[in-house]
Amino acid sequence: MGRPIADRMSAAALAIAGVAFAAASLVPVPAQAHVKWFAPYIVDAAPQPIEATLTNVWFWTGIALVLAFFLATRAVERSRLGEPVLAALDRASDPLHRRLDDFMRVCIGGFFIAVFAVGGVYLTPDLQTPSEWVSWAQLVIAACVFSRRTMPIAAAGIVGLWLVALRDYDFFHLLDYLALGLGVAGYLVLASSENERFRRHRFETLRWAVAIALMWSSLEKFAYPDWFYPLVEERPFLTFGLPRDVFIPMAGIAEFTLGFGLIWTPLVRRLSALALLVIFTAAVYPFGRIDLVGHALIMAVILVIAADHERQVHFVPALKRRLAGVPAGLATALVVMVVGYWGLHFAFYGQGYEPAPGAQIATHAPNAEHPHGSVAPIEPQAHDVDSTAGVAESVDPAAALFAQANERMHESMVLDPSGDVDEDFVRGMIPHHLGAVEMAEIVLEHGDDPEIRALAREILAHQREEIRMMEDWLARGGG
């Protein structure tokens, strides 16, 4: 008589999931979302004009491919197969769904314990701080998520850390982390509520938070494609053999549209979540533990979205149920996000700030473990005897790195006098401090003495803080 109905429905679910992953593979996505974690980039530099994206054929190719996937998924969802496919996904995820709130709280608590263990960061490895109390505050947040009475305290702590980070970081840069932070805080508040009318929206809050965070951060690939050039050149396997200028816009579209899919109808959002989960999981091996820590919370939320059995469609449900609603909704999301990103950037920075020679208004200090980008150390060449004073041929790699750092520092400190002693001092001290930061990172990478390593960490904390202060002073036009 053939296979049981349940088996056939499971096979149908697997087939739809296969279509989703196939569509995702047609629009390649980089294995990590925030390249700024690995190297500092100037946030307030002028973004590429949006016209450059709108006239890019690969942008529209990516749009067409994803629209085809979404429309095919919606067609299945509206057919007689729709509910059986969703039911098969329910059965596959039912063990997790029964403990979804416990899973989410454990992941939030585990994330804040991890960033406490990393130390010296606010809410992500990108946002570094020398303030020791921040790490202990994160441990308190982790402890508060396991009781419904204290979950609002944890929520307030998350929002509070974001606000404190404004002291050290640019507001526009922190917008990358606003939606997810507010979403997790909102979840904790709603999950602790005794009012079921409010509580039932807790997972919807997480869906919107991750969707907005992904759509917003994906725009960097259109506004600043050059930020991604060093990463692509360093790890060419990320492009799946595609040319760099084909891969980056299509990767941006994939990240944006899969984020958009998280706020659409049940089958679209669950398959989008599964595709994103594969993408983020694939980043763990090539990018290491820091990437795992940074993305752990967003990966947990994506898994929750994939396992959530909710069928009800909120927010313009009539539009979402129509096939024509897919292109209309995607176009609206693109317009809102693009106008918001380019408009806010112009409101904050005008046409874009050009830093003084040797200065960088960067997202964060250089990372010695991932030194690519505009401040990447130049690998010593065997013939480059003059630039490294003969050290390039040394068997000690740290000695060559020290020589290069010293040379770069002194070259950057050679400045034409402006006539303003304060400005000249600041412009000279910034490369001096950057040299100290780079040498401290070399010690942490290659040194063994505990006392010297402790001194290097102290230098990193204080010098980075002073670099930010001096760069802010220059950005304001002086005293």
UniProtKB/TrEMBL annotation:
Domain DUF305 intervals: 422-476
Record-linked Pfam families: DUF305
Calcium is among the record's keywords: no
Keyword list (alphabetical) reads: Membrane, Signal, Transmembrane, Transmembrane helix
Q: Where is this region: Disordered?
A: 361-380
Q: Which InterPro entries match?
A: DUF305_CopM-like, Ferritin-like
> Which residues span the membrane?
57-76, 103-123, 171-193, 246-264, 271-287, 323-344
What residue range is the signal peptide? 1-22
PANTHER family referenced in this protein's UniProt entry, alphabetically: SLL0788 PROTEIN
Q: What's the protein called, per UniProt?
A: DUF305 domain-containing protein
Q: What is the phylogenetic placement of the source species in the record?
A: Bacteria, Pseudomonadati, Pseudomonadota, Alphaproteobacteria, Hyphomicrobiales
